[in-house]
Design brief:
Shape: globular
Number of strands: 7
Strand order of the largest sheet: 2-3-4-1-5
Strand content: 5-15%
Structural class: alpha/beta
Helix content: 40-55%
Order of helices and strands: HHHHEHEHHHHHHEHHEHEHHHHHHEEH
Length: 439
């Protein structure tokens, strides 16, 4: 993908996606320094380069749409000479709604097996694979998969192939939300400790070989666990965090930012090695004055992806300010503005060359506001938004604030550790007479 020179190309470059490969080289802008006093990415990179802890677990948190996935790619690039990185999205492995800790363990097992099956240089102890194969043999839900493979030749590769088929089959059930996912969970839960011990044996064997061959070890990165509902997040990170911690491997785990505002966070922070915030880029300060440095860096991100002549300066400034620093929301407005321009064909089927103007910026901002309005459904939420607007450093941590953080209706910024109401919701509150126009 290349820099957009016309409206049609803006649709592609402003569709949110993690930057990889050539797209990373073309579009990446380092924003860590502007986000907080501590450089979050360097914090994680240095932790994994220099910490002697063989089972380091780091929680990486940030609002949805703040650019975490792209920053994970940046972190991975800096660590690739030291680690073999297994990076996956849990949302692509299992159904997030109602997720259980067993689903996460099963997904990790599947990723490890998949990685192993592609490595010709690694030869895992066949005795370990035998134990894992026997773990699933005789379980009714996997009987067909095992039976279909009974005639295959023996050997480590054959066993890996069988285990890969089991994990793919199980993932299909867990992803589709089928009733039989309960059967998988009931199968795994009574002997979860044994399954984890076998995963740990495999990781230990892999790490020993990698260290001998190239001085590396395994690092597992799990994305999208930050998108869980509150109860599901508590299930994973509170009720069953010890199970996750018992995996003898180094891990970076996406973590829901709203969990910081719960009474459970103290014990989570104590148990995990580090909890790093990748904060939103500030477009305003806690006193609601403009943050010019943050606004400028967001404009840099935009102009990396599109020619400046496609949009008027005041229109982009308006969109940046109304995004609250959320890159996903800024991209949404830019893409919608491009689509709006494309809809304005003249009778000859040609688009005008006029750049996106303030009028169009206001139209797409209104569309974004409509999306956020739907998240505000109770008097308690209205009251909390007004409270946060007047006092950006809340003392009370409650369910209402957690829900507002989850939906990005309230945004946490780092540095002075303060929260702000999403700018489009400030407009909404004024329309509903919850705030005065001059506030």
């Amino acid at each position: 993908m290349t820099k957009a020179t016309k409206y049609e190309e803006m649709i592609g470059v402003f569709t949110p996606f993690p930057l990889e490969g050539e797209n990373y080289d073309e579009f990446y802008v380092n924003t860590s320094q502007i986000r907080s006093v501590m450089n979050a990415s360097n914090n994680i990179i240095n932790t994994f380069l220099y910490s002697p802890n063989p089972t380091m677990k780091v929680l990486f948190m940030g609002h949805k749409g703040c650019g975490k996935s792209t920053e994970i790619m940046n972190i991975s690039r800096h660590l690739q000479n030291r680690y073999e990185i297994i990076n996956f999205s849990i949302a692509q492995e299992v159904e997030l709604s109602g997720i259980q800790y067993i689903d996460v363990i099963f997904a990790i097992m599947g990723q490890v097996i998949d990685y192993l099956s592609k490595q010709t240089a690694l030869k895992v102890d066949e005795g370990i694979l035998d134990k894992l194969v026997n773990y699933w043999r005789g379980e009714e839900i996997f009987e067909k998969v095992v039976t279909d493979q009974m005639e295959m030749e023996t050997g480590a590769q054959a066993k890996l192939s069988l285990l890969q088929k089991i994990s793919v089959y199980g993932k299909g059930i867990l992803k589709a939300g089928a009733e039989s996912k309960k059967t998988i969970r009931n199968t795994v839960e009574p002997k979860i400790s044994y399954l984890i011990s076998m995963i740990n044996e495999i990781i230990s064997d892999m790490n020993a070989q990698l260290k001998r061959e190239c001085g590396k070890e395994i690092l597992v990165i799990i994305e999208d666990l930050d998108k869980l509902d509150i109860e599901d997040a508590r299930h994973i990170f509170v009720s069953h965090r010890k199970t996750l911690l018992s995996l003898a491997m180094k891990m970076i785990i996406a973590f829901p930012i709203y969990m910081v505002y719960t009474a459970d966070f103290a014990m989570i922070r104590d148990d995990f090695d580090s909890c790093v915030l990748y904060s939103m880029i500030k477009v305003q300060n806690s006193d609601r004055s403009r943050n010019e440095e943050g606004i400028d860096i967001l404009k840099q991100i935009v102009y990396k992806r599109m020619e400046q002549n496609l949009i008027k300066e005041d229109a982009l400034d308006f969109m940046v300010s109304k995004s609250g620093g959320a890159i996903r929301d800024l991209f949404y407005m830019l893409k919608e503005a491009a689509l709006y321009k494309l809809s304005q064909f003249d009778m000859n089927g040609q688009t005008g060359m006029e750049p996106i103007s303030m009028d169009e910026a206001k139209i797409v901002c209104s569309a974004l506001k409509s999306i956020y309005e739907r998240n505000i459904t109770s008097k308690e939420q209205f009251d909390k938004l007004v409270e946060i607007y007047h006092d950006p450093q809340p003392e009370n941590t409650d369910e209402v604030l957690s829900e507002l953080l989850k939906s990005l209706s309230v945004i946490e910024y780092n540095g002075e550790r303060w929260c702000g109401v999403h700018p489009v919701l400030v407009d909404f509150l004024k329309e509903k007479n919850k705030l005065c126009e001059d506030e």
